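Researcher: Sequence recovery benchmark, item below. Answer with residues only.
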């Protein structure tokens, strides 16, 4: 389309719209335009008392959305909404308001989303994703949706990813107003769905009936073929799978013996089992699982009748356990019971064919060969052609079946015997009196068993198939087939190194099949040709899924690519196109720039008027949807509506979220904890400084020489601890001990007269120098403290708590606690003298000087000259020193 022709089209559109429509207000979030329009896209917002209703285009609207007119209608209590086709909104306005197209495509009869609209929802399954005709001048496509369409006059298939405001502006001139919708799917699925499913808006593949898998790539068990059809009814096992033929391999069994806990019988409608002849219930409760009385289990697993005249015989050997009345066990053959010889009362032995009536021998019945009575019920061995059954002689059919039973004649035992196990009926072909029991063949089998060569087995052997005519007989396959099913010539595998392809034997597989285990298996329906049966083993692709990507055939390339038929690959679009149909800048379906619009397949500058911009997702300007200038034939100007161009300021207070409150609480708690930790560190530091100052004032920290420091360094280096001297503490104070000695002296007063003068003891004098001062300083052991200097001087107790003085060296103040000897006490005395000497060397504080002066004055006053002084006038009167 020529660029010079565009202004003419725009003018023509303006004239048509202005003449046909009344004044309307069209809005997007942030801008409204007043003018003439016939757009039917979006929703209509109206409120009582409003100067005009608003046509809202797709987008999100909140309580802060401008302009003022739009804000007032959105927040009005009387506001109501009415949506166009494809849009779903509540009648009442609830903010934030999201106006968006439902998953699908809306087709409009006119350009720029005007005229009559029809909506086609995203298919929910493959069966609804059918071809549809669209009569559209413009198309609004929901987000995350792609659709493939074809023109009415062209078979070219194109894929659209974006809305088309004007179909005539697409690059292909063959696209008219009539389009054919071929396919539509969501782009939300992480892995593209196969042809058996469709991607839904929830991001999951919705499978067609019979398909399964995350991408709907395989058939459910019991389904076969490219459409995953169900196997035939009554088929228990078939050739299923997406590459299967559906041929029934095993039919369903009704009334199988196992359904009524039965082994060799037929389950009835009442749930009870009817046993075959010769079988009965076993001790473990299983019906028809052991041989009945009168039968024994032979080596072939059949219940065979006991010999004639034997009522009970042993399994395996058939040796008779109990013979019937009138019979005795043979001494030569343990399986046989011999009839007692018939003799007359006179002792005459009756020949075969006769019996004794007492006095003479009488002829047997014509039905008996030997007998012990006159009637046919007294036969021991029936006549030729007749066989013993339940005590009577019966005839047989031409196949050896005994009359009125399912038992077969046994010429060796002259009895009717049971059929082989698992047989319901049996016979001997061309039966004669010379026929043997091993010639018997089954003619009917228990449910679940098949008939093969006269035996009832569980499944047909290789080279045969179960005849669908009776679902009983195994029939031989055709000579060309190694195995077959359904019919003799439907080969599952072939002989002579040929390949089975759809039931026939071929030398090589067709193009849409692949060889596997001697058969040609069909490719996955997504593939045209393949290297395997999986959906990701495609070698080439069909026309409806042309894109081959990592072994998979996909319906489309990515949004920014197009499918190149020449190279059968995806190629990138021009940089100006967000989607395209071919290379170059003139094959765009939509533009990648938000400031460009599509014109004739080419992206050109939008040139929006009235300060509008290109509407996201619609591909055209807001001014293109509204004619703001009246036509020349209309003299009435546009009415003035307030609030269209003015903005509003809305102040909102946003409540805190729970996690914000939690964060603030944790932050405050952390700050408080940090303050407590810092405060504790500061207090510890101050206490350490006070302790250090106290120790320095009291000179508690003795100076260390370089030898001591070197010794302590070595101890820390090698992990040793400095030696600690343990001082020995006496049990009692020395003065208390001496007081006890004085008390003991009183008890030995009579003894004092016996002794003479003795030398002075080594114990120092009681009142030696400094003793009173030391005693006053130490105080009593009971109180552990002295009265304060204030009380000592004034005689009045302190009105405040007594100050506590720390012990300077507790070890030096404690005497020995392990010795009460004179030597131990003397060492303690020596330590006290050393301590006092060190205290004298220290410079006393003013308080100490004052206290000493007062104590010396008190000592002088308390000890006058009138006191008696001890004198040594003779020997000691201590009884312990004599």
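Model:
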């Amino acid at each position: 389309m020529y660029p010079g022709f565009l202004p003419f089209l725009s003018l023509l559109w303006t004239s048509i719209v202005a003449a046909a429509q009344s004044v309307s207000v069209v809005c997007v979030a942030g801008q409204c335009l007043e003018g003439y329009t016939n757009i039917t896209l979006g929703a209509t917002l109206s409120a009582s008392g409003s100067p005009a209703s608003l046509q809202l285009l797709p987008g999100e609207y909140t309580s802060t959305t401008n302009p003022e007119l739009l804000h007032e209608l959105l927040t009005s209590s009387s506001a109501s909404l009415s949506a166009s086709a494809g849009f779903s909104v509540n009648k009442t306005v609830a903010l934030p308001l999201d106006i968006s197209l439902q998953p699908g495509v809306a087709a409009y009869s006119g350009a720029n989303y005007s005229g009559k609209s029809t909506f086609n929802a995203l298919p929910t399954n493959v069966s609804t994703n059918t071809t549809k005709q669209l009569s559209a001048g413009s198309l609004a496509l929901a987000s995350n949706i792609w659709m493939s369409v074809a023109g009415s006059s062209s078979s070219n298939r194109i894929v659209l990813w974006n809305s088309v405001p004007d179909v005539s502006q697409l690059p292909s001139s063959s696209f008219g107003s009539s389009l054919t919708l071929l396919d539509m799917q969501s782009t939300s699925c992480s892995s593209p769905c196969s042809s058996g499913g469709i991607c839904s808006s929830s991001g999951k593949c919705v499978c067609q009936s019979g398909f399964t898998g995350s991408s709907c790539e395989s058939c459910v068990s019991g389904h076969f073929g490219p459409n995953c059809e169900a196997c035939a009814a009554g088929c228990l096992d078939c050739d299923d799978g997406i590459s299967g033929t559906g041929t029934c391999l095993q039919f369903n069994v009704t009334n199988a013996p196992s359904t009524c806990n039965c082994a060799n019988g037929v389950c009835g409608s009442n749930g009870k089992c009817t046993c075959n002849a010769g079988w009965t219930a076993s001790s473990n409760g299983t019906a028809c699982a052991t041989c009945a009385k009168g039968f024994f289990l032979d080596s072939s697993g059949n219940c065979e009748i006991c010999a004639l005249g034997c009522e009970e015989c042993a399994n395996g050997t058939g040796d008779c356990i109990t013979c019937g009345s009138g019979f005795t066990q043979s001494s030569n053959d343990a399986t046989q019971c011999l009839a007692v010889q018939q003799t007359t009362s006179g002792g005459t032995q009756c020949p075969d064919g006769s019996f004794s009536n007492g006095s003479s021998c009488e002829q047997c019945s014509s039905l008996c060969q030997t007998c012990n009575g006159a009637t046919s019920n007294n036969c021991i061995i029936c006549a030729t052609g007749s066989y013993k059954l339940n005590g009577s002689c019966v005839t047989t059919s031409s196949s050896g079946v005994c009359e009125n039973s399912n038992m077969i004649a046994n010429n060796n035992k002259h009895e009717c015997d049971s059929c082989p196990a698992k047989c319901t009926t049996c016979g001997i072909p061309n039966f004669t009196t010379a026929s043997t029991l091993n010639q018997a063949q089954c003619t009917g089998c228990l449910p679940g068993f098949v008939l093969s060569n006269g035996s009832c087995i569980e499944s047909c052997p290789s080279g045969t198939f179960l005849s669908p005519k009776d679902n009983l007989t195994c029939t031989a396959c055709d000579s060309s087939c190694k195995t077959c099913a359904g019919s003799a010539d439907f080969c599952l595998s072939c002989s002579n190194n040929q390949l089975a392809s759809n039931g026939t034997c071929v030398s090589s597989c067709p193009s849409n099949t692949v060889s596997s285990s001697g058969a040609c298996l069909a490719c996955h329906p997504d593939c045209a040709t393949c290297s395997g049966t999986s959906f990701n083993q495609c070698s080439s692709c069909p026309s409806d899924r042309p894109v081959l990507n990592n072994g998979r055939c996909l319906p489309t390339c990515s949004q920014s690519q197009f499918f190149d038929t020449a190279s059968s690959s995806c190629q990138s679009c021009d940089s100006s196109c967000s989607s395209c149909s071919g290379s170059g800048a003139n094959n765009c379906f939509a533009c990648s720039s938000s400031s460009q619009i599509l014109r004739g397949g080419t992206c050109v500058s939008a040139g929006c008027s009235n300060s509008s911009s290109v509407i996201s997702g619609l591909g055209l300007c807001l001014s293109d949807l509204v004619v703001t200038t009246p036509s020349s034939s209309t003299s009435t100007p546009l009415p003035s509506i307030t609030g269209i161009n003015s903005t509003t300021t809305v102040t909102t207070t946003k409540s805190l979220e729970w996690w914000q409150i939690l964060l603030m609480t944790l932050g405050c708690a952390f700050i408080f904890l940090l303050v407590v930790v810092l405060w504790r560190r500061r207090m510890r530091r101050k206490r350490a400084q006070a302790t250090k100052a106290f120790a320095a004032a009291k000179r508690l920290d003795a100076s260390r020489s370089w030898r001591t420091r070197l010794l302590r360094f070595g101890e820390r280096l090698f992990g040793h601890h400095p030696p600690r001297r343990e001082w020995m503490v006496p049990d009692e104070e020395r003065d208390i001990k001496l007081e006890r000695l004085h008390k003991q002296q009183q008890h030995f007063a009579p003894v004092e007269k016996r002794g003479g003068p003795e030398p002075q003891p080594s114990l120092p004098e009681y009142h030696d120098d400094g003793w009173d001062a030391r005693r006053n300083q130490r105080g009593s052991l009971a109180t552990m403290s002295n009265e304060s200097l204030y009380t000592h001087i004034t005689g009045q107790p302190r009105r405040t708590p007594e100050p506590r003085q720390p012990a300077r060296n507790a070890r030096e103040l404690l005497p020995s606690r392990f010795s009460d000897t004179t030597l131990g006490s003397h060492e303690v005395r020596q330590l006290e003298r050393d301590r006092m000497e060190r205290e004298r060397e220290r410079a006393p504080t003013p308080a100490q000087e004052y206290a000493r002066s007062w104590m010396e004055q008190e000592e002088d006053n308390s000890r006058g000259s009138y006191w008696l002084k001890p004198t040594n006038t003779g020997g000691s009167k201590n009884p312990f020193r004599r």
